[in-house]
Amino acid sequence: MHRVIFPDQDGVSLVIPAGDYSIEQVAEQAVPEGVPYLIVDEVDLPPLSQQHAWTADFTNPDGHGLSDADWEAKYS
Could you read off the pLDDT of 27-72 as tens digits, one per residue? Predict the structure, then answer.
């Protein structure tokens, strides 16, 4: 199962996808506009109990979050 991670003011945030959207659609909608994200395999993540200490390299992201209007235009 894939997850989405992105940087935030406290370190790294996690998005757990649900529904019928692709992982890319979920990432582009859930991640704030312009913020880079990575799509990772759940088994590669450290325990959630240690999320406060997670770090990741976002220099080569899988994509960036889109605005609501841009997401609607892309997927409608």
Answer: 999 999 999 999 999 999 999 888 888 999 999 999 999 999 999 9
d(CA 68, CA 44): 30
Instruction: Show the beta-strand stretches assigned E in 1-76.
Output: 2-8, 11-15, 36-41, 63-64
Buried b (16+ CB within 10 A) or exposed e, 7-29: beeeebbebebeeeeeebbbbbb
Within 1-76, residue ranges assigned H as helices are: 23-30, 68-75
Distance of CA 72 to the CA centre of its chain: 18
| The model's pTM | 0.93
68: three-class secondary structure by DSSP? helix
Residue carrying structure tokens 């019928």:
20
